[in-house]
Amino acid sequence: MPAGARAYAGEKRRIEASEDCRPVPARADSPQECRSVAPLRGASDMITAMTHDGSNVRVHTDYLWFETARRQEIVRITDDVARIVEASGVREGMVLVSAMHITAGVYVNDWERGLIADIQEWLEHLAPARPDYRHHQTGEDNADAHLKRTILGHQVMLPITSGALDLGPWEQVFYAEFDGKRRKRVVVKVMGIA
After folding, report:
1. 179 and 83 together in one domain
2. What is the pLDDT of residue 51?
3. What's the domain count of the chain?
C-alpha cells in the first residue's frame, strides 16, 4: 500500500484519495511513491493507487469456492484464475492463488490424466490414509489430508504479462482437495500495474 494511504477495516476496503499527487520523499531503501490514490467506486475487492510515474498499481481479490463430491479430488482451475486476472485489469504483475483450508492445496503441472493419477498415487504412498496418526487422537480422522497438502503445497504465485496468465506450454493450475465433501475456498489475489 502506498505511503500515506489507509485501508478501512471490514469486508469493504478502499484507499483514501488526496486532491493532488505529491511525491513522498524518497528513502534510500524504497522507490519514490505518490500519495494520490484513486479508489474504484463500487468495488469492494479492489484497491488502486497511482505511483510517481502515473502508473496505476492495482490489487484485486476474488475467491473460488469448492465442494467436491469425493474426499480427494483434483480440479483444474486455470480458466477460472485467468478470468479473474482479466477482470482485474492488471496488465503486468503477479497473481497469488492460495487454498484457504489446511487440507487442500494448489499446484501447477501438466493436465494429463496419467500424471494426475501418478501424483495422487505418490501422495498416498507418502501419506497414506490410515487410523494410527497421532492427530487422530484428538478426534480427527484426516491427518493424511494435512500431510498431503503439506507435501503438495498450498499456494502458487504466477506471472501476468500483457493482461494474461503467463504460463509455460503445458502448465495448468489445479486445486487439490484431500478432505472434501464440504465447502472450501481459494483466494485469488491479483497485484500489478493496470
Report:
1. yes
2. 74
3. 2
